User: Fold this.
Amino acid sequence: MSKTEILDSIRRIAAANNGKAPGSQRLASEIGLRKSDWYPKFWVRWGDAIREAGLQPNSFVVASPDEVLIAKHVVLIRQLGRFPIDSDLRLNPSFRGLHSLGNKRQRVVKVLEYCREHNGFDDVIPLCEAVAATDPLPRERLAVPSVRNIGYVYLVKHGNRAEYKIGRTSNPIRREGEIRIELPEKLQPVHSIRTDDPAGIETYWHRRFAEKRKEGEWFALTLDDVQAFKRWKRIF
Assistant:
């Protein structure tokens, strides 16, 4: 889908809605727009697309229960000056009776993705990124995860090419050896993230680099992409 087609669709939907700018989810339901169709090749945030279409971005386009919770998270983040832990949510009346976005790691990923897509959250993004780049539950961990649930999401480079594989395994050393057998050039391990949700973390990175996918789990990444991956150490 071209940039012009997306902008024309934004203007058309806004015109039919009294000039109110549509959210990305609205275009997803009406024309099948995927995030990978516009992020990051055209815009980093959805608010930037709205502005280029000649419209004023909405602070929040609330259309789903998740977005309601995200909006409440943003309010609380600004009040606390940090990303809230579980006890903050339990003590806050506005969260009572509402479904959770998941554990802290899952919450920070969803809030961060929303804020990057919309305009007006430059103060919230660094607070979310600080949590996403480190161990997200240092004070909330009540029990050590079962060893059988622990896995790794790894990044390896194929020879001198700018080609990287993002995959998951229960044993990064063994998996590295298995991949080496399949490739003609030397494999260079770059980084691995220890986590109790390897499938979820792998999916996150595959989505983040969707526009750079080549074949299977191989991606054409830049040095900035690699550094972003390496900032994630472990996630429980």
Notes: Strands lie at 151-158, 163-169, 187-195, 218-220, 234-235. Confidence is low (pLDDT under 50) at residues 135-147, 175-184. The first helix runs from residue 3 to 15.
